[in-house]
Amino acid sequence: MLRGKRGTSQSKTNVNLLMLSLMNKRKKPYFHNNWRELKNAPSEFFESIEYDEFMSWKVSGWELPSSCYCIIRVSDLETKHVKEHVFKNHSAAQRMVEKLLGTTGIEFTVVDPYSVKRLIPDEDYEYEDF
């Protein structure tokens, strides 16, 4: 590598080339999205199912990985900002639920392998230990 004096255009060029090579390495590959082929495909290509079967398959058919105890999704009612927390053990999830129950202006959903529960904390209600 050629070394130039500090402040010369040659050293700036070397830095710029280094930055460009680093940026190019971090770029994710393009994922080809073939939505037009799906949109233009005839309806006979897709198997039709009943509404109840679809709801039980897509809505009630969630699966959590075995390494995940539960997922808590917190929504700020004012800003509509959503944040998701994933927990591996019961005690950490319980601490988060206790913290969220003391917070107003939010709603949160707890998903575990067996159920989905939506909770909206109420400042007038006294919560017992879960």
Roughly how many Å is the radius of gyration? 26 Å
Average pLDDT number: 80
Proportion of residues in β-strands: 15-25%
Choose one word for the global shape. Answer: flat
Q: What is the CA-CA span between the terminal residues?
A: 65 Å
Quaternary status: single chain
Q: Which strands sit side by side, in order, in the main sheet?
A: 2-1-3-4
* Share of helical residues: 25-40%
Give the structural class.
alpha+beta
Query: How many E-type strands?
Result: 4
Total helices: the number is: 4
Taken in chain order, the helices and strands follow as HHHEEHEE
As residue ranges, the low-confidence spans are none
The major pleated sheet works out as: 4 strands, antiparallel
Please explain how this structure is put together.
34% of the residues lie in helices and 18% in strands. The chain is of the alpha+beta class. Strands 2-1-3-4 form a four-stranded antiparallel β-sheet, with helices on one face. A hairpin with a 4-residue loop joins strand 3 (106-111) and strand 4. The radius of gyration is 26 Å and the shape is flat. The protein starts with 8 loop residues before the first helix and ends in an 11-residue tail after the last strand. The mean pLDDT is 80.
